[in-house]
Every structure is written in C-alpha cells, then in structure tokens.
Amino acid sequence: MAPKQEKQGIDGVRRMLPDEKTVYELANLFKMFGDPTRAKILGCLQVRDMYVCEIAEVLEMTVSAVSHQLRVLRGAKLVKGTKEGKEVKYSLDDDHVTKIMEYGLTHVNEGK
C-alpha cells in the first residue's frame, strides 16, 4: 500500500482535474482539429479572412464540401462568419484558435 503522503498527493491531483463535462468538451474540441480538411480550412483562415468560394479554390474542393466543414467549425466556435452583401466572409473565431494552430504546428514541426 502507498504511504499516506502519496495517497493525499493522488487525491490532490484528482481534485485538480476538470469535471467530466469539461473533459468531454475538450476532447470534442480536439476532434475538430483531427480532421485534415478542417485543419486545412483553419490554416487558410490563419493566413487571412476568406469567402467559402476562395477556400474551395485554394483547397481544390467543392463549395458544398467547404460549406459543410465551415458549419461544423462554426458549431465548435472555431470560426465565425461576417455577412458582406450576399456572401459571408469567414475568420478564426478568436486568438485562442490562432494559438492552438500555432502551438500545434510548432509541435509537429519540432526536430524537422
């Protein structure tokens, strides 16, 4: 059996963990980044705000396919759209999304 001090340490760690709902939401957030198409769309929007047709052209995809992924990303609060006339210009939702992308790219490019 572990000494009492270690047991208290483990209990302390357990108390510091986020609740189940928060962990679930975090896992779902990272699932958004787990899809290569969504990651490419986020990469485009990291460079500049873009219309659906522009993203589709850059990624050589259909407008319909890009629109679908943008809906998913919007639902996850990773991108936002601003109506400009009859079109919607998309951008990253906030600086947190930019930082997640930057940190992720830095991590995967380490040692290259």
How does this model look, in words?
This protein is an alpha+beta fold. The chain is 67% helix and 12% strand. Strand 2 and strand 3 form a beta hairpin. The radius of gyration is 19 Å and the shape is elongated. 12% of the residues are buried.
How would you sum up the global shape?
elongated
Give the low-confidence spans: none
The H/E string reads HHHEHHEEH
Number of helices: 6
Summarize the structure.
By secondary structure, the chain is an alpha+beta fold.
Key structural traits:
6 helices, 112 residues, alpha+beta, three-stranded antiparallel β-sheet, elongated, 3 strands
Describe the secondary structure blueprint for this structure:
Layout: H1 4-16, H2 20-33, H3 36-47, E1 50-51, H4 52-59, H5 63-75, E2 79-84, E3 87-92, H6 95-109
Antiparallel strand pairs: 1-3, 2-3
Helix pairs in contact: 4-5
